[in-house]
Design a protein that fits this description.
Length: 138
């Protein structure tokens, strides 16, 4: 089983879609290994998205990710990283394929409901960002 990391972003939590997105992930074959609701601080959001530091949208992205509670979820299934990306849909919610989480629950390129790690290597880093080893129940 491969492991990955997802975040239900503040727009989707605010809209009351946390439960529907978790159900969507379970229906897509993911096992929820750990789950945590939290509000990212400015420093935490900047650290999590450090790779985008030089992008013009970085400040907006950090403001969005700190705008309210989010839900971090450690997930497992076969081919988890790729399968989560497929289940999420395209970054821009308006371009996301019908039935994907971003199509169903996102609004635009920034407020797109969900994060998913883009590689197994980043999944390992991002899981450690939110969860201690003792929290991860396989
Ligand atoms: P992801 O892997 O599909 O989440 O996409 P990226 O890693 O490229 O971007 C990270 C996050 O930054 C996205 O999920 C969006 O929330 C946000 N984002 C990406 N591109 C843009 C953009 O052009 N403008 C704004 N405002 N936000 C963006």
């Amino acid at each position: 089983m491969e492991e990955t990391l997802s975040i239900i972003k503040p727009d989707a939590v605010r809209a009351g879609n946390t439960g529907r997105i978790i159900a969507h992930l379970e229906d897509a074959g993911f096992e929820v290994q750990a789950i945590r609701r939290l509000r990212l601080s400015q420093a935490q959001a900047e650290a999590f998205y450090a790779v985008h530091r030089e992008r013009p949208f970085f400040a907006d992205l950090v403001a969005f990710m700190t705008s309210g509670p989010a839900v971090a979820i450690a997930l497992a299934r076969e081919n988890a990283v790729t399968h989560l990306r497929d289940t999420m849909g395209a970054t821009d919610s308006t371009q996301a394929a019908p039935g994907t989480i971003r199509n169903l629950y996102g609004s635009n390129i920034q407020n797109n409901a969900i994060h998913g790690s883009d590689s197994p290597e980043n999944a390992a880093i991002e899981r450690t960002f939110f969860f201690a080893g003792c929290d991860l129940v396989g």
